[in-house]
Amino acid sequence: MQHLLNNIKEPIVCAACLDEFSRGLSDASSLRGYLRMDVGFTDAGLQVWCQRHEANICVIDFEGARPEADFRSLIKKSDTTQDAE
Ligand SMILES: [Zn+2]
Questions:
Q1: CA of 32 to the centre of ligand 1 (A)
Q2: Spatial distance between the Cα atoms of 15 and 10, rounded to a whole number of angstroms
Q3: Could you report the per-residue pLDDT of 10-34, keeping only the tens digit for each?
Q4: What DSSP line would sit under 10-32, residue for residue?
């Protein structure tokens, strides 16, 4: 189950969002809070899209392969609330 934890070593970010955040042009307290991205499958593979700039961030072409994907998540649950962040 270790692979279901956050193992991200190099986040994929929008260069324009990074630039705006770095120059203090947002009131967001973190870059993570500033980014607004769509991630999804395309005919060729996977795409990361910036909602703020309506622009491509990254395209990964699977070149016909079908890599394994695990859509399970480890969401912590309490007695009264469910934290979905
Ligand atoms: Zn952006």
A1: 12
A2: 14
A3: 999 999 999 999 999 999 999 999 9
A4: S----HHHHHHHHTT-S--SSHH
